[in-house]
Design a protein that fits this description.
Radius of gyration: 23 Å
Number of helices: 21
Low-confidence stretches: 1-24
Structural class: alpha/beta
Strand content: 15-25%
Distance between the termini: 16 Å
Number of strands: 25
Mean pLDDT: 93
Helix content: 25-40%
Length: 579
Amino acid sequence: MVVSRNLFNFANINLILTNPILCPMKTDIEIAHETKLQPIAEVAAKIGIDENILEPCGRYIAKVPYTAIDEEKVKNSNLILVTAITPTKAGVGKTTVSIGLALGLSKIGKKAVVALREPSLGPCFGMKGGAAGGGYAQVLPMEKINLHFTGDFHAVTSAHNMISALLDNYLYQHHSDGFALKTVLWKRVMDVSDRSLRNIVTGLGPRTNGVISESGFDITPASEIMAILCLSKDVEDLRRRIENILLGIRYDGTAFTVKDLGIAGSICALLLDALNPNLVQTTENTPAFVHGGPFANIAHGCNTAIATRTAMTFGDYVVTEAGFGADLGAEKFLDIKCRKAGLCPKLTVLVATTQGLKMHGGVALENIKKPDADGLQRGFENLDKHIKNIRLFGQTVVVCFNRYDFDTDEEIEMVRNHCKEKGVAFAINNAFLEGGNGAVDLANIVVDEINNNPSKPIAFQYNESDDIKTKVEKVARYIYGADSVAIIPTAQAKIKMIEQMGYADFPVCIAKTQYSFSDDPKKYGVPKNFEFTISDFVINAGAEMIVAIAGSIMRMPGLPRTPQAENIDVVGNEIIGLS
């Protein structure tokens, strides 16, 4: 067992110091370093992947060609979605639960695979450090996964900025011919949180430096290239989507796209390796695909459809997650990814913690780790809203209680009994401390529900034929609980442009705060009587979705006062501080 420093409290110090299993404390990265990894060919062989098709990236990582996908096998696999209640700033351990469930399924003899997103350097060095699970439920090698990995993020960044450079060059070279764009929509990206680059001016200096224009940077997970990578089904689909990227508007109101630049082939060349999913392993050597990394608060928050389909080709049970709470990640997973990729989860696991429930029950953040039955009871309203939302899609729900060392038996029973009253299956996850053994009960309940009470076909929350405003209103009213939707005048003008250019049938991807159902991050619990405000629309013509910007959400995050980068170091040729 391990006790994470995040779970430690002094009430348990005597137990910890007198228990040889619990002491000494180990960090996630220490556990990762102590885990004996298997050569990636052996990991692949467990699920029937031929070593000869692997493209090794060292001893423990490999690319698996997407051509290995078998649609018949995909149809017969059991896809499990893991989502969560509205999270705290520390999260709720959704990735740890996802990995732990795969470990638990393996422990009970199932052919299980987990499929996750790749971490972004922005949060790794900013808010939260590593994002590869925790304790004895991690994907490994965790340093490589959290940092440069196989270069997928760099490929997305390079492809996006290559388009920016080629667009600027086209405007410069054709300026003397009288060519210009009324509006340039394409910005730049980098995988670093840097608020200073949100808005910039380019082309300053002599004329040879280009045409002076306003621009800016988004973070790489918000790039349309990332969304395209995650939704493409093959290289032909990738090329088609890249050609359709809307770069700007001509003075006659027509679209100017990547196809007009004639560079789609070169951008595909930059992304060709990145298109294939990455195979790694867990702390118990279970196969894991880690591929793609859009955020759920500013993008659609799911790993690649290719990775999910590859995992379903080789696994009987495939566990995947959607970012942040169910109002963000799960809604987009179901309304966008599943709609476009033809997927349907057999079941959804909803992760909850006492500290998350207490926060939404009005308990002060500094007290959410302390016993508070009344605060916990009030927090059930947030849990219930998420259960209701997931059921709206036709999904069977299992509530997974992600246990921390400060949780009391009494409060755990409160959550269990509440779920029983709501007719929802309940299980405790102890995978952080116990690996697969700590998720066996969860795995058994998930398998039983899939066998006896599987999800129905997805009931999407809007029709593709609905207009953009109606799509936004349906999600805001039914999923968020808004009374009304306000679209500011400049955003209304964008809707007219979207309709005129033929993009109105696309799904909507609402970018909003992850900390509340509303567009106000300080409104915890289940806000009522609120207006949901849309300030802008971003046309992702290649990804084939319309991003609706709600409230003050930023597509380029800033860094906190004390960034996690201050804790990351190299000691004795080993990286520390990522956990």
